[in-house]
Amino acid sequence: MKYTEDDLKKELETKEYEYGFFTDIESDTFPVGLDEDVVRAISKRKEEPEWMTEWRLEAFRYWQTMEEPEWANVNYEKPDFQSISYYSAPTNKPKYGSLDEVDPELLDTFKKLGISIEEQKRLTGVAVDVVIDSVSVATSFKKSLNEMGIIFCSISEAIKEHPELVKKYIGTVVPPRDNFYAALNSAVFSDGSFCYIPKGVRCPMELSTYFRINQGGTGQFERTLLIADEGSYVSYLEGCTAPSRDENQLHAAVVELIAMDDAEIKYSTVQNWYPGNKEGKGGVFNFVTKRGICEKNAKISWTQVETGSAVTWKYPSCILKGDNSIGEFYSVAVTNNFQQADTGTKMIHVGKNTRSTIISKGISAGNSQNSYRGLVKIMPGADKARNFSECDSLLMGNKCGAHTFPYIEVKNKTAMVEHEATTSKIGEDQIFYCNQRGISTEKAIALIVNGFSKDVLNKLPMEFAVEAQKLLEISLEGSVG
Amino acid sequence: MKPETLNKKLIMSFKDKLLTSYIALEDYLEFDSPIHDVRNKAIKIFEEKGFPTKKEEAWKYTSLNKLLKQDYSIISNKENNVEWKKVRPYFLHEIDTYKIVFIDGVYSSFLSETTHDDVDVCLMSAALTKSKFKPVIETYFNKIAKKDGITSLNTAFTKDGAYINIPAHKEVQKPIEIINFSTGSEAAMFLQPRNLIVVGENAHVQIIERHQSLSENKVLTNSVTEIFAEKRAYVDYYKIQNDTDTSSLIDNTYISQEHQSICHVHTFAFGGDLVRNNLNFYQKGERCDSTLKGVTILEGNQHVDHNTLVHHTAPNCESHQDYKGIFAESSTGVFNGKILVDKIAQKIDAFQQNNNILIDDKATINAKPQLEIFADDVKCSHGCTIGQFDEDALFYLRSRGIGVKESQALLMYAFANTVLESVKIPELKMRINKLIANKIGVSLGFEL
């Protein structure tokens, strides 16, 4: 029998989220609700020094005076911040010497996710700092990184062992008062990654961290701080998948990147959190603040593939403070069913001869809404600043929407800013061409979408690029008919 | 008192003054009750919403605070006469035109040339009171104007303006000029002209609109124009904004287009202190064609904000936008263009282009070209650039003995030419060329 598109549509509608499972690890979870005592308790539980507790409290007090922003082009039921548990950590938490000691159930989770640690270690040479429900469980390759002076650990460990670095840099790029979710994160962040690359060191491997939301009803508040000292280089990967849950889960992470003179940071994300079922029920709220600051001749490059989450609201940004610094943003955002994404970037040109490139590809299918929102700002002192932006949208079906909201503010006459945006659909002639050559419509669409996103996928590190291509295919299956 | 609170107070007092004057105006004007209802509703909307602030997304880059602090006189009934000689340069006197002229908001029969032969080119105040215009007023008046604070303020104070009604299958033989003069009889004047233009099936019309202050006294104009283009109608509209540095303009234009109608709006913004253009197109029938073009050349402390909207609600339509801006000294330019495509509006071809050149260090440009698309089978694109004169092109011209200023002027003309070339009245095109030459202070010695 012929396998028709209708069959596929049916199959996909009934198909459950592939990575939707729930690992039964005994979690040490706080009761729901948020007040100063909870913030203090989180800080105490993590054995944090006094200054950190104060820092959290200050952020919390400010957060209480703030209102949840509403300007984004997304609709969702606002989370009730008093019904979230702000801390959840696996209870069996010894510091493992080897993988054998790790809770086998946990290892099983990783296997299902396809990130078996042994495999990662042996085959890819990736050091994985696995984050499961906010607490770093295993840190691999730490030793070999240590020899080069690279610090790569969980942020709670860093607060204890390298307080001088954390104290100096935390909140310098994303101040606790920056926005509503950044303030909330600053008050209650549970864990995250910390990375320091010393002067002139080229990190020999791709550093990587995997996030996943496990315990039902727990908010996830990651905090990442990445410092690349003068002349260093690091490539950092972040990948996510979350299990199927009915109630909406909130994820409000903060990522801060600091690239000192001549340093280069490459930050790649593949985000595939649970997007909700086909009626738009459930799914993760992804409200993330990501920002990097570039000193002289430094370069920060953000690459992201966004396929998951019910509501995505994120703008990885670059402050090009130093002369000759470079900011890049490459993004593919795919929305299907009832997903909503409002994502883009901010490029703030402060230094002279600064350059930025923005390539954003939005693909919307089903009943989804996909928005690009970006800011390019050239300050008066940014002589000869250069920006190139390209935002392309692809629409599949007539129930979805694609939106572009670029903001361009130029205060310098020597600036060169270019912005272009297009919206189109997959051409019938393109599909016909593929069909003619024996490629089924579904495969043809995957092929065309891959071609459409090639500019961005090419920027991903090898192992991510393969995964990302597969993700695109999975996300869009059955969306055309 | 803190300056901020003082500002707030002054703005509040202007709002209060408007609200009080409204009551006085209502006692004085004799309009039909339906119009009264419209106005009463409008003043309530204004009372509730007030003037837009920078907190509103559409007004992010333009603040009215500076303007609203003035103590404007709101209603003027005096008929102030001006000499023809003095105002002649502001008319397109090379050719014969219909003219609807207002001086300080009051109709000047002396300077105007209206008609009722076949087509109605006359006054809003007449249309609102005479019963023979009633059906038209009832069908069209205040039907597409947005119900925001600033437009509602104008609706509430509807007193006079141009009324143009072109019946089906008529072609207006000569262009129509709508000119609003202000003489400076008051220290600060607030004007609110209200125009209604109905273009019937197959009818053709060309309109030129201008606001001109004749003194150094402050003027703030809040103008609303509603244009209805019926089936296959053709509307060619030109806005010349070359006012003095003491006058400001908020121009709200709403255009509704039916099946296969064609509508072009050209905006030439060279003058004024603060100019805000809200240009809204609503395409209601299939195969409409909308063109929005503009040239902006600014200097000093001028601020011009182009806020455009093209709302495609029917399939198979086209829209073209092309805005060029040249900004010198500490001028500020804003371009906020939006293309909205509804779900049912398939096979739309929408294009938007915005190019800007910054000449001096203190000049600023804020651009926000937006696309909001809900239909899948469309071709929508926008491009926005900000740059400088091409050094090589400048060098090329200079190496052939052309001075710096002249070379720059030539390049400016070339830059603005895509907009200028589509001006369909030759005399007007020449006039605009001269305005540009004056503005950049060079004479190229030949016509372009």
UniProtKB/TrEMBL annotation, chain A:
<dbReference type="InterPro" id="IPR055346">
    <property type="entry name" value="Fe-S_cluster_assembly_SufBD"/>
</dbReference>
<dbReference type="Pfam" id="PF01458">
    <property type="entry name" value="SUFBD_core"/>
</dbReference>
<feature type="domain" description="SUF system FeS cluster assembly SufBD N-terminal">
    <location>
        <begin position="50"/>
        <end position="203"/>
    </location>
</feature>
<protein>
    <submittedName>
        <fullName>Iron-regulated ABC transporter membrane component SufB</fullName>
    </submittedName>
</protein>
<dbReference type="Pfam" id="PF19295">
    <property type="entry name" value="SufBD_N"/>
</dbReference>
<dbReference type="GO" id="GO:0016226">
    <property type="term" value="P:iron-sulfur cluster assembly"/>
</dbReference>
<comment type="similarity">
    <text>Belongs to the iron-sulfur cluster assembly SufBD family.</text>
</comment>
<dbReference type="InterPro" id="IPR010231">
    <property type="entry name" value="SUF_FeS_clus_asmbl_SufB"/>
</dbReference>
<dbReference type="InterPro" id="IPR045595">
    <property type="entry name" value="SufBD_N"/>
</dbReference>
<dbReference type="InterPro" id="IPR000825">
    <property type="entry name" value="SUF_FeS_clus_asmbl_SufBD_core"/>
</dbReference>
<dbReference type="InterPro" id="IPR037284">
    <property type="entry name" value="SUF_FeS_clus_asmbl_SufBD_sf"/>
</dbReference>
<feature type="domain" description="SUF system FeS cluster assembly SufBD core">
    <location>
        <begin position="211"/>
        <end position="452"/>
    </location>
</feature>
TrEMBL record, chain B:
<dbReference type="Pfam" id="PF19295">
    <property type="entry name" value="SufBD_N"/>
</dbReference>
<feature type="domain" description="SUF system FeS cluster assembly SufBD core">
    <location>
        <begin position="187"/>
        <end position="415"/>
    </location>
</feature>
<dbReference type="InterPro" id="IPR055346">
    <property type="entry name" value="Fe-S_cluster_assembly_SufBD"/>
</dbReference>
<dbReference type="InterPro" id="IPR011542">
    <property type="entry name" value="SUF_FeS_clus_asmbl_SufD"/>
</dbReference>
<dbReference type="GO" id="GO:0016226">
    <property type="term" value="P:iron-sulfur cluster assembly"/>
</dbReference>
<feature type="domain" description="SUF system FeS cluster assembly SufBD N-terminal">
    <location>
        <begin position="34"/>
        <end position="178"/>
    </location>
</feature>
<dbReference type="InterPro" id="IPR000825">
    <property type="entry name" value="SUF_FeS_clus_asmbl_SufBD_core"/>
</dbReference>
<protein>
    <submittedName>
        <fullName>Iron-regulated ABC transporter permease protein SufD</fullName>
    </submittedName>
</protein>
<comment type="similarity">
    <text>Belongs to the iron-sulfur cluster assembly SufBD family.</text>
</comment>
<dbReference type="InterPro" id="IPR037284">
    <property type="entry name" value="SUF_FeS_clus_asmbl_SufBD_sf"/>
</dbReference>
<dbReference type="Pfam" id="PF01458">
    <property type="entry name" value="SUFBD_core"/>
</dbReference>
<dbReference type="InterPro" id="IPR045595">
    <property type="entry name" value="SufBD_N"/>
</dbReference>
